[in-house]
């Protein structure tokens, strides 16, 4: 029986030092997701903005049509996100002035955003960035970034507060991960196929209503930007407000 | 050995210095309120339990019974509110048996504050204690460090500011039972909508002098989940069976007994 | 543990603080205690109608400042000790104020490493009439004509020193306390609410409450 161990509890330091340095970053919650289809792409995000346990706004859009049929979001620290998007929109305007109104391809936009992010390598934009649109062949395209500009073209990606809740759901439902053809004893993966826009929209709604159930920073409203060859369209659906 | 075990204290302290953090307890970032009315008292709570930003339980119970007519609402560390409440409930019953009288709210409060003070705030229990006893209806609160307050209306938890805003603007003296119930429910709802640590439903408990306490579990349910857009039924066999192993964990023996004319003797009990 | 380097003024994280204005004044017929009614946790007012004037015996009261939990625990202990002590006295005798004050002092001194408690103990007893004792944070004891304490008291040290008179009439003493506390509340952010008073005399206990519209000019 040695239920107690001798120790000098009284000599231990109890107080944690108080940091007096200004912290330039904060976390504004929210979550976003992008899915690329065969001839369309969607970028969706909730419209709640928070800090700590408080709600700043129940409708603060964070997905933007930045022009040239490209939609963009930068989720995380809202001020950095807005700054990044403003900077990109501004640069796109100057690109058009300088190049006789030439349309910027999503491929070029993606590479340019990498440079914007890496430009602040040692004082990063505290955001996970996503852009969506159509590529040169008219196929849906989604690009995702880390805070300092590492990027990749993907079929689908979730970002922000509830990314860890949504991403596994997307892996399973969009890329059919962990699904096998019945009767093949796990030898044959379920074959991939392009999802229709209706199916994608259903997945997006369910992803967000589920994330709202289990993540306190997600809720209030869902705004979905849809890019097709006809252009950009926006849809809005209410989410739970608790 | 009774009481808390500190066996792992030094090991955990060592682990902390090596970069392994302490495990985080489920905190009921909560809204709880209480309000007196003419001839009784009512307490209420939301039903969300959180672990960081994740909702750990969408419909947990934060209203605890200390005695049949003394209830308390708990905020803070879920485990602490639960355990401290059970301990005091137990001691209160022994005490009332010993004294041969109904337990009193002030007794419950004194036991709680002395227990919490002993632990110097390390038990993160913030409670609103209410009830009726031979001396009338009472509404009190205890904080983790052992301090107590008295009031006609109270709120505690992360949503206490949102709830107090409602209480301060709508409370009037000598309310009816129905008005007090409405006020408490409204205060909790304010926490549910405006505080991220609070959510889901409203639980309510009414204690009236000369009557049994009434618990209204899920008095309001303003956050029912909407129907999903898609069905997520998987075709049978989608998940591969990699290995199958069936074991007998008991041997089944069968013995057949035939009941013939010979067995009649054996069945005679009152011969 | 090195007693000199111990920070006894720190509050534990999230602790309820009585950032307070309290005082007790001797007057002709006995003693009057006064206090504001604000309790804070950080910048939030946890209670705006707190009663910081705590009864220790029939005509012995104390004003509490510092940690709410610590001062309540200490007051509960003193109340208990004094009950035990009073039960041993002859039938018609009551404990003297100095007994209560010295129990406070003993507890505050012996547990100084673990307590954040600034207490004013005052009362009326037949032998000494009105008496005031101040027991500040380290656990010392000081008998005084009047005592002021808490964060708000710093603003009225000069005023009280200039305007205090021994053997005041009751109304004059009430005005003295009311004016001092009104001024303390005005300048100290962690004091506020109503002004509570307790008048302790031969006649017994009388409670007074003054609302902001009454004391703010």
TrEMBL record, chain A:
CDD domains hit by this protein: proteasome_beta_type_1
GO cellular component, one term: proteasome core complex, beta-subunit complex
Gene3D superfamilies: Glutamine Phosphoribosylpyrophosphate, subunit 1, domain 1
Keywords annotated in UniProt: Cytoplasm, Nucleus, Proteasome
Single GO BP term: proteasome-mediated ubiquitin-dependent protein catabolic process
PROSITE patterns: PROTEASOME_BETA_1 (PS00854), PROTEASOME_BETA_2 (PS51476)
Subcellular location: Cytoplasm; Nucleus
Source superkingdom: Eukaryota
Assembly and interaction partners: Component of the proteasome complex.
Identification of the protein by name: Proteasome subunit beta
Organism of derivation: [Candida] railenensis
From TrEMBL, chain B:
Record-annotated active site: 30
Xref: Gene3D superfamilies: Glutamine Phosphoribosylpyrophosphate, subunit 1, domain 1 (3.60.20.10)
Proteasome beta subunit C-terminal domain: residues covered: 222-257
UniProt entry keywords in alphabetical sequence: Cytoplasm, Hydrolase, Nucleus, Protease, Proteasome, Threonine protease
Parts of the chain that traverse the membrane: none
UniProt keyword annotation of Thylakoid present: no
Chief location bin: nucleus
Xref: SUPFAM superfamilies: N-terminal nucleophile aminohydrolases (Ntn hydrolases)
GO cellular component, as recorded: cytoplasm; nucleus; proteasome core complex, beta-subunit complex
Domain of life, per lineage: Eukaryota
Name by which UniProt lists this protein: proteasome endopeptidase complex
Automatic annotation (TrEMBL), chain C:
Compartments (UniProt record): Cytoplasm; Nucleus
Keywords, alphabetical: Cytoplasm, Hydrolase, Nucleus, Protease, Proteasome, Threonine protease, Zymogen
MF GO annotations: threonine-type endopeptidase activity
A Gene Ontology biological process term: proteasome-mediated ubiquitin-dependent protein catabolic process
Residues in coiled coil: none
Active-site residues, record numbering mapped to chain: 20
Quaternary state and interactors: Component of the proteasome complex. The 26S proteasome consists of a 20S proteasome core and two 19S regulatory subunits. The 20S proteasome core is composed of 28 subunits that are arranged in four stacked rings, resulting in a barrel-shaped structure. The two end rings are each formed by seven alpha subunits, and the two central rings are each formed by seven beta subunits. The catalytic chamber with the active sites is on the inside of the barrel.
Name this polypeptide is given: Proteasome subunit beta
